[in-house]
Task: inverse folding
């Protein structure tokens, strides 16, 4: 096989997607752990889930910090995933750019809203 | 000196209407495309998800509004439609999570045989649909 690394590497992108690939997995695992943390607390609650019990889950400083991290992780995860979809199916550069900008605005808006809700708890 | 990427072969002889219905997609392929679709659904419904987080944790009054969406409806949307949309979200979340765990497991354990791909894909479909059915029954008050 011919050499395709180092100075002979075949140029296909800026950083070969390793960073995004890894970020996708790390953020995914973080969200699974968060899901288990919330689910565990819900299941350990006795009786119906009232407002106090539900809001109580997110009001401890530990859960606030964890939830905040998960919001950021979610935004990164979705950005990588949705951008993959646009890159695979939308070949018209102009339309792809519009969709990518829409994705970022959509995500940052939702992220800001979610963080606002979390920090006023 | 770096080289430009070779031009990849393109196959444009697939007709979406005449070929795709007769092409058999293996279980792993179904899980793969559903992973994308479920992710896109959750992305598009993200404002609804944040709205549910907002109303359910902000105050007693907003919590009542959150509950009412499932009991009497939300604005002009009837409650049953809210439940159907949320059931869709539940499925999307479960499928995306289980398929994601399958991905990470394959990466970490180098489990990339054809057999494992098929068996784990079937497990993913059975688990996600089974759990969706169970939670859906709860959502619609069957138990």
Result:
């Amino acid at each position: 096989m011919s050499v395709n690394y180092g100075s002979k590497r075949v140029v296909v992108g800026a950083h070969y997607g390793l960073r995004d690939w890894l970020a996708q997995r790390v953020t995914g695992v973080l969200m699974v752990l968060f899901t288990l943390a919330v689910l565990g607390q819900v299941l350990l609650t006795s009786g119906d889930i009232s407002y106090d019990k539900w809001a109580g889950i997110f009001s401890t400083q530990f859960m606030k910090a964890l939830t905040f991290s998960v919001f950021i992780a979610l935004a990164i995860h979705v950005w990588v995933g949705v951008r993959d979809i646009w890159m695979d199916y939308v070949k018209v550069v102009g339309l792809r750019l519009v969709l990518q900008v829409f994705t970022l605005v959509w995500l940052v808006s939702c992220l800001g809203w979610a963080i606002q809700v979390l920090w006023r708890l | 000196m770096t080289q430009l990427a070779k031009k990849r072969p393109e196959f444009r002889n697939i007709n979406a209407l005449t070929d795709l219905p007769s092409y058999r997609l293996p279980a792993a392929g179904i899980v793969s495309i559903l992973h994308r679709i479920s992710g896109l659904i959750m992305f598009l419904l993200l404002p609804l998800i944040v709205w549910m987080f907002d109303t359910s944790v902000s105050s007693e009054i907003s919590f009542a509004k959150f509950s009412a969406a499932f009991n009497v409806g939300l604005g002009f949307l009837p409650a049953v439609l809210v439940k159907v949309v949320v059931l869709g979200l539940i499925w999307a979340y479960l499928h995306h999570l289980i398929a994601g765990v399958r991905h990470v497991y394959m990466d970490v354990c180098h489990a990339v045989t054809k057999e494992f791909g098929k068996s784990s894909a079937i497990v993913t479909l059975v688990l996600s649909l089974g759990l969706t059915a169970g939670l859906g029954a709860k959502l619609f008050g069957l138990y």
In short: The interface with chain A takes residues 1-6, 36, 39-40, 42-43, 46-47, 49-50, 53-54, 56-60, 63, 97, 100-101, 103-104, 107 of chain B (CB under 8 Å). Chain B has five helices and one strand. The helical segments of chain B are 27-44, 46-57, 60-71, 79-109, 114-139. The CA atoms of residues 73 and 79 of chain B lie 4 Å apart.
